From TrEMBL:
The keyword Transferase applies. Gene3D superfamilies: Beta Polymerase, domain 2. It comes from Dankookia rubra. Pfam families: NTP_transf_2. GO terms for molecular function: nucleotidyltransferase activity. Residues 45-112 form the Polymerase nucleotidyl transferase domain. This is Nucleotidyltransferase domain-containing protein.
């Protein structure tokens, strides 16, 4: 019934599911060294965009990342940097593309002190 509801044959549906599982199986978890290399390679571009500091935290920093997982980034902008929602979304998209996985950005200035302290102990500085 699931195949018919999608306008597919059972064979097409099963073939699609097998293909999906094979793609998922070959996905690798983001690794800290590769993440640092990719981000540091873009240091000049990041500074042009007003990034004064960048850190990796979360599962990637702890070596606990899962395949298909995102990379959590803590970002600090230079004083006077011109920020907008569009600029933040554009930066996030650029970082996601550079890392070949989803990047999640948290602005350091927006963290409450308790959350900031919890992130600091595991954060790895990129720039």
């Amino acid at each position: 019934m699931a195949a018919a509801a999608r306008g597919e044959t059972v064979q097409d549906l099963i073939g699609g599911l097998v293909q999906h599982f094979l793609v998922e199986e070959t996905r690798r978890a983001p690794e800290l060294a590769a993440t640092l290399g990719a981000l540091r390679g873009r240091a000049g571009r990041l500074r042009e965009r007003g990034v004064a500091g960048l850190w990796v935290y979360g599962p990637v920093a702890r070596g606990e990342a899962m395949p298909g997982g995102s990379v959590d980034l803590l970002v600090e902008f230079a004083a006077g940097a011109r920020l907008s929602l569009v600029a933040l979304a554009s930066l996030r998209a650029e970082l996601s593309e550079a890392l070949s996985t989803r990047a999640e950005l948290v602005e350091r200035a927006t963290l409450c002190p308790n959350r900031h302290a919890a992130m600091e102990w595991e954060a790895v500085r990129v720039l």
